[in-house]
Amino acid sequence: MISHHLPILQVIVPLLAAPLCLLLYDRFLSWCISLFASGIAFLIAALLLHQTLHTGVISYELGGWAAPWGIEYRVDIVNAFVLLIVTAISSTIIVFAKESVAQEIYAERIPLFYAVYMLFLCGLLGVTVTGDVFNLFVFMEISALSSYTLIAISEDRRALTASYQYLFLGTIGASFILISIGLLYSMTGTLNMQDLARRLPAVSGNRTVESAFAFLTVGISIKLALVPLHLWLPNAYTYAPSVVSAFIASTATKVAFYVLLRFMFSVLGVTLSFQSMLLSGIFLALGIAAIFVGSTAAIFQDNIKRMLAYSSIAQIGYMVLGVSFATVTGLTAALLHLFNHALIKAALFLALGCIFYRFGSASMNQIYGIGRRMPWTMTAFVIGGLSLIGVPLTVGFISKWYLVLAAMEAGMWLVAAAILAASLLTVVYIWRVVEAAWFKVPVQSPTANTGEVPLSMLLPTWALIIANRYFGIDTSLTVGVAPQAAEWLLGITG
């Protein structure tokens, strides 16, 4: 039955779509192939989540070689949840891409763009679905190399510098992760995640394992853009094409966060990570630092894309803060924010893409008064901004509520207060955009660049905005799955 092969199809579908885009080398056909592949990937992810919720863990042995000797794709409730949001975001953004890409990327590069987009998606899905640590590293590099290309493909020459900076730091992070994998293999003789988890307790306390833990933590933190290892992120998001900014911001760091969860909880274990290596205190400090550094820096940005980039750094801090509690409520908050922030940032960056489509700029002084000329776009941005702040009946409120609950459960009232204070900083920088768009006098004549963007751009933007509202009201999917995933990571059964 084809349902048995869903884990491998999750990776193969976008992988096969990439060379097809290049072979046909037609802008419209390449877009159609990418749209079809993303849609199929989303359908597969939904089926995998349904299976894991009803039948438990799915193990798929490549080539018929049983784990740990062969490569295993392993899908549980945690990575099925991540697969769903990544493929959903990809499918929505690819609809938006048709018009946006045609304006922001040279025509002869567009088929290449779609090919690399598919490779990037393939890498993200491979990282999420694999149960082998070296296979994870390979897919991580596929997604990383693809992301460097997607950023550099922009017509803006500053994107080349941003891509190079990302490549330099990303290579350091990848090297650290590879060193860690080598050290773990030298101590256990296995690369399978489940087998590693079984063998590591026998060598706990060994300095080689502790060194592997340190390399791994730093390497993933670079990929995650956790303060103070976040320097690659602002320029990468700012100068990339609008579609790329939206896709990377809403998926790449989320998959890196998933890798962090998978290693710290499923492979290395709670005892080593949060007791022996004192990760709770480290992540608590770094999470709070990220929240305030990112939010404060966002307030002073005149480029709205850069403002949202620094905001993403702050939101990563919220997720890491949830992990630092190492409790069911804390992990639930982190997983909820992974899902919710993907929806929020994709919506906000697509709204910015609409602005860029009309004005060729995302500068604050270029959007004066456009709320009256692009009301649908700017209303979408306002609702997305409210979700980012955490206003009730939006997805942002749900994850921040659980984060505050986790802090209070742990008796950390100051941390709970800090979370609420950071939300006030979010109000400041979102209000700057709202004020410029709705209350400032336009800098251009009323007839210049008037009108909304095409429906093919507005509809996916509003689809994400509606999702921000819907999942803020009906939490049966997110709050239904996230606590189960948290308990799975912590090894709580029954």
Structure explained in plain terms:
- By secondary structure, the protein is mainly α.
- It has a domain at 278-488.
- Helices cover 76% and strands 2% of the residues.
- It is built from 19 helices and 2 strands.
- Strands 1-2 form a two-stranded antiparallel sheet.
- Helix 8 (207-224) packs antiparallel against helix 10 and helix 13 (304-325) runs antiparallel to helix 17.
- It is globular.
- The model has no long low-confidence stretch (mean pLDDT 88).
Summarize the structure.
This protein has a domain at 278-488. Helices cover 76% and strands 2% of the residues.
Can you lay out the helices and strands and say which pair or pack?
Layout: H1 6-24, H2 27-55, E1 58-61, E2 72-75, H3 77-104, H4 110-129, H5 133-152, H6 158-188, H7 193-199, H8 207-224, H9 233-239, H10 242-267, H11 270-276, H12 279-299, H13 304-325, H14 328-359, H15 375-389, H16 395-409, H17 413-439, H18 455-473, H19 478-489
Antiparallel strand pairs: 1-2
Coarse shape = globular
The number of distinct β-strands equals 2
What spatial order of strands do you see in the largest sheet?
1-2
The major sheet is characterized as:
2 strands, antiparallel
N-to-C order of helices and strands: HHEEHHHHHHHHHHHHHHHHH
